[in-house]
Automatic annotation (TrEMBL):
One of its GO terms (cellular component) is cytosol. Its EC number is 2.7.4.8. GO terms for molecular function: ATP binding; GMP kinase activity. Residues 1-13 have a biased composition (Polar residues). It comes from Hexamita inflata. PANTHER family: GUANYLATE KINASE, GUANYLATE KINASE-RELATED. It comes from the Eukaryota. Residues 27-213 form the Guanylate kinase-like domain. Residues 1-20 are annotated as: Disordered. This is guanylate kinase.
């Protein structure tokens, strides 16, 4: 291999080093799951507004091929990438887990997690397929899995529509996926150390904050 040619072996070595560093870290990974629009980001954002939690916990910024919503910034809510860029990252083994949901790709990169774990416990917001990959591939002893559930099976659809960020076609796709998601969560409750019913948001934020506080005291 010529000088300056990208080396697959070097890349693999780097990934395995990154994995080991994640494994070695004393910090925890908090994995959030829940049906579409149940309020996952509302719950963790609410908790991270609290000064005593803000410094202790960070959010792993995922990569996605979906378009940014109004007010979203590249590198803050997501890294917004093209299909080609995403596929290249998959080829280069950059993702701990990735998934296609509602026709768009979402991935959690090793680097995004490692960046947070250097200083803070890391919150991941992933879908049920991402969770399956994580369980197979990753670092179970570092994971605390939390399921956010809707108060009723109809409520998330209401929230999805009220949020107003999806077209009717996208809403229909999400609703079809939601049937599968809800079944998965009902059948796999054993995967989750905690379940929070997000009925009144402030109450759910308090419950989530209490779990985070426990983690900081461990
Ligand atoms: N407890 C609640 N009561 C009423 N509305 C809520 C509640 N929690 C969140 N919402 C609203 O529901 C909508 C969906 O919330 P949010 O975007 O946080 O969901 P999400 O689970 O992160 O969504 P996604 O599946 O797209 O990642 C938002 O408009 C939010 O303001």
């Amino acid at each position: 291999m010529g000088c300056g040619t990208p080396s697959i072996t070097n890349d693999q070595t780097k990934i395995s080093e990154t994995k080991q560093e994640i494994q070695k870290s004393e910090k925890q990974m908090i994995v959030l799951n829940g049906v579409t629009a149940v309020g996952k980001s509302s719950v963790f954002k609410g908790a991270l507004k609290k000064p005593h939690l803000k410094d202790e916990f960070g959010f792993s910024v995922s990569h996605t091929t979906r378009k940014p919503r109004e007010g979203e910034q590249d590198g803050r809510e997501y890294y917004f990438v093209t299909d080609e860029e995403f596929d290249q990252m998959v080829k280069d083994n950059k993702f701990l887990e990735y998934t296609v949901n509602h026709g768009k790709k979402y991935g959690t990169s090793f680097m995004a997690i490692q960046k947070v774990l250097e200083k803070q416990h890391c919150i991941l917001d992933i879908d049920y397929k991402g969770m399956q990959t994580l369980l197979k591939a990753a670092l179970p002893q570092k994971q605390i899995n939390i399921l956010i559930s809707p108060p009723t099976d109809e409520e998330f659809e209401k929230r999805l529509r009220t949020r107003g960020t999806e077209s009717e076609e996208q809403i229909q796709t999400r609703l079809r996926t939601a049937i599968v998601e809800l079944n998965f969560f009902k059948e796999n409750k054993g995967l989750y150390q905690h379940e929070i019913i997000n009925d009144v948001l402030d109450v759910a934020v308090e419950e989530f904050s209490a779990i985070l506080e426990q983690i900081t005291h461990q």
